[in-house]
Design brief:
This protein has helices at residues 22-33, 49-56, 74-84, 95-124, 128-135, 141-161, 166-186, 200-209, 228-237, 241-253, and strands spanning 13-17, 39-42, 63-66, 69-72. By secondary structure, it is α+β, with helices and mostly antiparallel strands. It folds into two domains: 13-84, Glutaredoxin (3-Layer(aba) Sandwich); 95-253, Up-down Bundle (Glutathione S-transferase Yfyf (Class Pi), Chain A, domain 2), CATH 1.20.1050.
Length: 254
């Protein structure tokens, strides 16, 4: 697979990421889908901002650096990758189709992804050892041990910054269920959100839904420590039609 002639083949790609993050998985998937190699640098939640702010002025992840250009935000990165490597396409040259894809992505990014994250964090933070193990996936054993020790002190900060309360979590989970229903209905006819083939809309939806079921194709291994909180979270969603759809999209395209 070759890069677009508008870009040099020697472009160096570095992805600054959380290994366990649905917005970061969205970018990893796009990179792999387009056959683009990247150097992936894992960051620790709570300590990542020093790195990302130097790159973009923001604490936001993921950040993709292409040579000396830093791009923050998963959808901005997907569009940049489409320009860098147009084939296989994730978007469309047809204006109507392109608009439909963007509408799905905007809704998923702005409403669904944050709702899933808030609900999941509320569940996981009840089990600090499990949460620390998951959030530090991809780091060395020593760093993970240190992170587990200090993580309980990070929890109040996370809850405050993300407005994680029981009421907000309940509302977030309600929105997540409504989103699952909408995706299941929209994909019933063709198996895809837009038309009859895989696009950035499907990639976004499946990526953002991964924390509801943890498909086997994820590029990292989940910690094996049993967690009642995590088991309860997964059981909440496991029988939904859109979870079966998510896992099928991962099998076919990830």
């Amino acid at each position: 697979m070759t890069l677009s002639t508008s870009e040099p083949n020697t472009a160096q790609l570095v992805l600054y990421q959380f290994a366990f993050s649905h917005f970061n998985e969205k970018v990893r998937w796009a990179l792999d889908w387009k056959g683009l190699d990247s150097n992936r640098r894992n960051l620790l939640p709570g300590f990542h901002a020093r790195t990302t702010k130097k790159l973009t002025g923001s604490a936001q992840t993921p950040v993709l650096v292409i040579d000396d250009e830093a791009i923050a935000g998963s959808t901005a990165i997907l569009h940049r990758l489409e320009a860098l490597q147009p084939s296989p396409a994730l978007f469309s040259a047809d204006p109507k189709t392109a608009e439909e894809i963007e509408q799905w992505i905007d809704w998923l990014d702005d409403e669904v992804g944050p709702a899933i994250r808030l609900g999941l964090f509320d569940e996981l933070l009840a089990d600090p050892k499990c949460a620390a193990a998951i959030f530090s996936v991809g780091h060395s054993g020593l760093k993970r041990m240190i992170y587990a020790v200090i993580f309980p002190r990070i929890i109040p900060v996370l809850r405050s910054r993300m407005s994680i309360t029981a009421a907000n979590a309940a509302q977030a989970n309600k929105l997540t269920l409504e989103a699952l229903d909408r995706i299941a209905d929209a994909t019933e006819a063709t198996g895809y959100l837009v038309g009859d083939h895989f696009t950035a809309a499907d990639l976004t939806a499946a990526s953002l839904f991964f924390p509801l079921s943890f498909p086997a194709q994820l590029p990292f291994s989940m910690p094996t420590r049993p967690s009642a909180a995590l088991a309860h979270w997964k059981a909440r969603w496991q029988d939904h039609r859109a979870i079966a759809w998510t896992e099928e999209i991962f099998r076919k395209h990830r």
